[in-house]
Amino acid sequence: MEQEKIEILSLLPEQLAAEIKAMGEPAFRAKQIFRWLHVRRVFDFAEMTDISKQFQSKLRERFYINPPKITQKLASTLDDTVKYLCTLSDGNCVETVRMVYHHGVTACISTQVGCKMGCKFCASAPLGFVRNLTPAEMLGQIYAADAGFPEEERISGVVLMGIGEPLDNYENVMQFLRLLSCSEGRNLSLRHVALSTCGVVPQILRLSQEALPLTLSVSLHASDDGTRSSLMPVNRKYPISELLEACRQYFEKTGRRVTFEYAVIAGKNDSDSAAAALGRLLRPVFSGQRPHVNLIPVNPVADTGFSAGSAVQFQKKLERQGINATVRRTLGADIAAACGQLRRNQMHSPAEEGEQH
Ligand code: SAH
């Protein structure tokens, strides 16, 4: 049986070196190839000019390079935020966002095609789960969103907050983080990476063992199990008490406080009593250190029936409870409503190529 081809962009330097050595070539070849791929971002073996034609064709037999391609762009008219539809080699697509802050450029990337978690306010949930992204496909979103920008405008921070549940694609996400931070490649410090989860408790505990310097962000969105389960089915499996215990253990193990995401939904989770309950829940989690909550008015998604509550009002309520809360600076406010919806539209009608403003 013919050996299956390997996705070369998913390999770490030492893994590539082992593959190249097994092909009977010296280790420095692997270094050259890794540089072509991850530093020069050349994705065609034929363009690797210091590799012989003969070895190029051996490489083509053993490996494939198929990074995601940007097939649609949605640019904010209010700031520099750009949302991309990235099409994968099998025709599936995901979304990637490029956001420009004072301190640098952050990419919001997807980790799965679709999602299994079924959160009621989310645009991706009704479309279901298709498959996990490979490490190369996560890294490829960053390379695609960087293409054409000068060195100083390159992505310097990454948030895993696009489509998918990163902790439901654990191994591939870890490999992606190793690739992203490896000094021979993109060399991006994990201090500038945030991973957002709906609360898959066993995987939070597993992540705490990795001792990575990334920021773990937990999508909480409610302060009682009844409300949270009605918004997020994952809560039926891992209720709030277990989730916060995992956050406490994460803090104990890594010394890093988990941050909480809270989408403010009018009449659902924005009452005085919700704020008081959140205070009671969160104050003890990090041994007296103040918890931090990021508030965002929920993006109304068609058919969900939710409307945005006042994040500023809820922030005041939380601060009275001894909780630090920030209202997420809304970048790309005019395209934020399209969160997860580029892909949704694409699936309902064939995408038009090119830019859309
Ligand atoms: N699965 C992960 C990461 C992807 S979702 C998670 O659940 O955290 C990224 C963030 O967007 C999460 O905090 C999620 O709850 C939030 N989100 C999803 N749909 C939203 C909407 N319509 N309005 C506001 N936030 C939303």
Your description of this structure?
By secondary structure, the chain is of the alpha/beta class. It has two domains: 6-64, DNA polymerase, domain 1 (Orthogonal Bundle); 69-356, TIM Barrel, CATH 3.20.20.70. The protein is built from 13 helices and 15 strands. It has helices at 13-22, 27-38, 53-62, 135-146, 170-181, 201-210, 225-231, 234-237, 240-254, 272-282, 311-319, 333-336, 341-348; strands at 6-7, 63-64, 69-75, 82-87, 93-101, 104-108, 112-114, 129-132, 155-160, 193-197, 215-219, 259-264, 292-297, 324-327, 354-356. The strands form three sheets. The protein has an eleven-stranded mixed β-sheet, sandwiched between helices. A two-stranded parallel sheet has the order 1-2. It has a two-stranded antiparallel ribbon with strand order 7-8. Helix 5 (170-181) links the parallel strand 9 (155-160) and strand 10. The longest helix has 15 residues, at 240-254. The radius of gyration is 21 Å and the shape is globular. The model is unreliable at 349-357 (pLDDT under 50). S-adenosyl-L-homocysteine is lined by residues 119, 121-122, 161, 165, 196-198, 219, 261, 263, 296, 298-299, 301, 339. The site of S-adenosyl-L-homocysteine (SAH) has 16 residues, from strand 10 and strand 12.
Task: List the keywords.
single chain, 357 residues, alpha/beta, DNA polymerase, domain 1, TIM Barrel, 11-stranded mixed β-sheet, two-stranded parallel ribbon, disordered C terminus, binds S-adenosyl-L-homocysteine
